[in-house]
Specification:
The protein has 3 helices and 84 strands. It is mainly β. A hairpin with a 6-residue loop joins strand 36 (519-524) and strand 37. Strands 8, 9, 11, 12 and 13 form a 5-stranded antiparallel β-sheet that branches. Strands 21, 22, 24, 25 and 26 form a 5-stranded antiparallel β-sheet that branches. Strands 38, 39, 41, 42 and 43 form a 5-stranded antiparallel β-sheet that branches.
Length: 1282
Amino acid sequence: VSPEYSYTPPDTILDNAGCEILQTCCDDQFSLCYSNESRIVEVVRVDTRFGWPKQVGWGQRMKLRCHSTSVAAFKKPPVPQEQVSTPWHLNLFNPTHLTAQAWFHHGGDIGGCQCAAHVLQLREESQSVWQTINGTCADPALRRCTMEKLLPDSRYYGRIQTTCLDTWQNSNWSEAEEPVLTLPACKWTHDSGKDTEFECVDKTFCDMYNQSELNGTCCNDHGGRLRCPRLFPVMCAADNECADGQDHCCARSAAACEDYGGERACTTSDIPAKEPNITKFESRLQASVTVTFSRGKYLSGDKSPCHFSHWYLEVAMSDDKARPIGPWVFADVCLQTPGQSYIPSFSCTISTETGIISLTKYVVRMKEICLERYWDSELIQSTGYATSWPWRAHMPTSITITEIRHDSFRVGWTPGQAYERHVQECVFEQWEVWIRLLYRDEAYAPNGMAEEPEDGIDWYVACTTQRREDIFCYPTRLESNRDYTVRVRERCVDPNANSPYAVDLSRTRTVAVPAIASENFTTTDARKYQFDLVWEPGDRRACIFYAWQVQSKPVGVDWPLHDDELNATIEGGAHFLTFQRNFTQATVRPMPWEFASNRQYGARVRELCTRPEYNGAWGYLLYPGVWTNKPVQADQIYNVSVVWTWPPLLSIRFKAGPEGFKEDLPVGAPKYNSHSDCVYSGWYVEVSDPTLPTPNWIVQKECLSVDRDDFGEEFFGGCDILHGLTHDTLYDLRVREGCTDPQARSPPLLLQVRSRAKTPAAMPVKVVLRTEFDYSPYSYTLTWDPGFHYDCNFTRWEVQFRSPNDTNSSVAALLPEAPQAASAERLPERIYGHPRNTGGASNWDWSVPVVSCNTIHHRDREYGWCRIQPLVTNALVDVRIRELCDNPALHSPYKVLVTTKPPAPCTPTNPTRLVKSGETGNSLDVSFGGDWTTNVGDCLNAEGETGIVPLGDATGFKYTPCTCNLSSYAPYHAHDPVSGNCSALLLQPDTLYFVRFRMACPGFPDRNGAWVITETPRPTGPGCKWSRHSNRTDMLECMDHSFCNFTADPGCCAGRGGRQRCPPDDPWMCSNRDCVGGTDHCCAVDCARHGGHRNCTRAMWPANIPEMFQVQSLAPAALHLIWGPRAYETREVSDCIFSRWSIQVAKIADQGEGERGPWVDVPECSFPNAKADLHHCTVAGLDFLEFYQVRFAELCTDSNLNSLYNWSFPILVRGALAGAVANITMTVQTMSSIYIGWDPSDPNDCVFSQWRVHWRPENPPSVALDPWVEAANCMEMFNRRE
């Protein structure tokens, strides 16, 4: 299919009702244009980017299907008939001074648009009409075109629309993204405007036919040719072909200039100065006009080669349409007007010296003159005219001010000289007297009071006269004691002829008089506790306002004395100031407000000034003044009852109505008087002796301070009286609710009551025969809490007990000091079941008070404790206790504890927390005491026991020997407290352990205490190399870091430098060298026989074993190592001075399970003098697919402090990778398949599994690549030769 394809249907289709393109792929957009008359269908593709000539072809098969009109009634339109989508974009670019280019694209869906085309329109910025662009821009096959015949130095806006045969389908307009700016034109761009005349550089014209040759020399003496004639408008480029070889040729068209160098080009180096912008043309003075303008600037920003010389201005008389009607007159006065580009605007006034006369219309034209006149700008004329002002009337010659009062003065003046009648241009209208109120500065009155500054009033017309011979008038309504200035002028019918002002520069001050009293003083909104006052200010005159002084007093109270007015306090009234003169109302709240209701008040107000002599007079509120409203009383109290409480002498309870509150609403407002106005101030309770002939009511102040809490509609109140009454006495009582406003109190309620009698102490509570630590089978500890003492004055506690079967208990109760001691031998007769109790009866007599419970401590009422011992086990005991008072009638009742059986002996209690107190390389200390002291309970031979488990060990706690340093040792008394510390022994150094502790009871495992475990793991100290075992069963570690079997040969380290670490089963290296024939230290579980454990001091601590982070084979025949120094868990440091790292590797035969080869140093990983936090190193040159082991150690300048080695597991080293395939070939088999072939390369250490083949399509460079896809037919290739 070609870009535009015409198809002629067969004769059988006479006409059609619509056609459509049937395409096999893609989203190409086509528009059809067909005619039933010619039976021709034109197919046009509309979605190409550059149009048909630039981009064509779409590589697919297409069909055209048309519907006959005979089937149109029951066939849907082949293509939806919808409005076309808006064009995607329109770009305007590449402008010249007369042309610009456009590039556009139709929208994404052409739909059923027939005969698709487009319309491109431009609009110049100053115009409102859009102009359709023809030429190549109207060609529907193009997407890029040139717009011609544009105006130079203009801003154009563009828009485009897709059009269809059916106009309703036309798209919306799409506007250009940016406007286009045409370039400035040169002077020769346009013709001279005359058919056969040249325009010369000096602006003269000469006819091209005045001389024999067509291109004559008539401009040679006038600076040369500036523009060509209208019939020959094109200026050619060669400047020596015409006018005797001195000038450019003029031709009818650009083609005619081919023999003269072609058409003369217009560049930015050829453009003239831009004509100036006339921004304003007006008259400001008599017989003159003023033009305001700025330098012209091209829209494109291009600059002319012009160097400014001066401005050229001409004026001419004008008609009403701004057309010149007189000769143009050069205004040489404007020659000196500057023209610097950095000055935003310039102005020049043209007056009588140029011939301007008054009351005349003028227009102006101007241009910029350059040093080289060739670059002069074009003339530009003002768009409107300006009328010169008339000659003004003369200024009055003198002003006099007399008759000065507080609010006016007289102004007189002498008229200015009148013009001769034939030149008189002022037609008198009136005399105007203007005055100005001057600003008053901040000042201080003689009494030191600050006087705020006050603004003045700018000039305003104060009075006028309508006849020219009336030459005085009176400004009125002036402010007292203020300064004014005056000016006078003659006003004319034409305001431009008004005379200048005659100004009196002196200050005229009005007379100072006091302020006038306020007026219309009334009251509004009288409520219960406040009322409002409203007044109107009088004339303030000379008063500089300070405040309004407002006073209010109850009737019967005198006004304050005059000389104490500002600080006066008015009993029951109010006295205050307000400081805004324009705010003439105030709310009066008499104080104290609680007494302000239902009362008559008077009020007065006056204006206070900074200078008292100008204070205003008082304005009084007229009789009868104002009455405040009555309050609503609280509800009467009811249901009064007397209740028993302690310690009050009298407690009453009652009900009251809801609490009132102060909400002083206006009369008639919603909810007015809907509640009481009682603001609660206490319960007003009074008592009187009923035996008196006249009641003597005494207010109980304790009830006035009781809070009031509301509970809905009812209130349950009360009052407790603690003082002022006697016990068990009859009183008269009067109760009412007290209010802050006495007139709002509730009505009183009268009744008789009796005060409370004295109350004995209450029996003790919480009496028990043991506490957590002090209870044992051999004694009883008695504890109790005091009951309430009420009116009892405590003396001591009385404790008695009885036991039918415990002689020791009875003896404890009958000490020798007691008179009953003589009968102690008869006590067995009281024991039930005793042989001497022949009658078998039990004697339940209570003992005398227990002496051990009557010590000095037990005279402290709050000290409720005593011990009764020794007792025999299985004793049955009853106890009773009471509080004794100084008044026996107030002793408390006995609290009896019934017969109690003792429990079995108790176990030790352990501390609730252990505190770490120290550590060594092979031990950890824990301490307990203070709040965490243990208790031996009933285990009299208790001793400490510890257990340990390393952090991360899942096997549980293990027994470890310990030594304890305790505050006391067995044998203990029952429940003795113990504190101290214990050391868990035989631990590994630099290890985190959990430690547990308990007090154990040897021989009585059921009495062992519970375990207490440290909250966090605790570290042991660093230790020496021999402080930790070899961590390998039965293996010694020798000084050369090798290992040998201790069980098979105890002397196996003899030729290897001796023993360095012992095996785990005999982990401790002993001090004496009495093993291996007396040449080496012994290894044992208990070193007591060998001089004890080998000594380890801080100076012997080695560097810690390095941290091994990674040993991994990441590349063939190589191992990648990552390691770093490791700090001790206690953060203590060795005295090691770092020298280098020792990194060694060894091969292990038989796939990592055979003999290990010799250790080989890796010097490139030693990093001397570089002890960083992390080191990376690669060991290369190893054998493929072999196992290797690596060990790390930190070496010191003192080799005795070298660290132990850290060993890795056996690591398999990676083999060599298979080589890349070679000679890949691809052969196209069908339209959808490709054959791929290749040659295998060296497999190296790769054991072949299968081939994998991936493919992807190649895209243009500007399009992202598609992802790789596995070839479906190449997935199961398990033969390497396939």
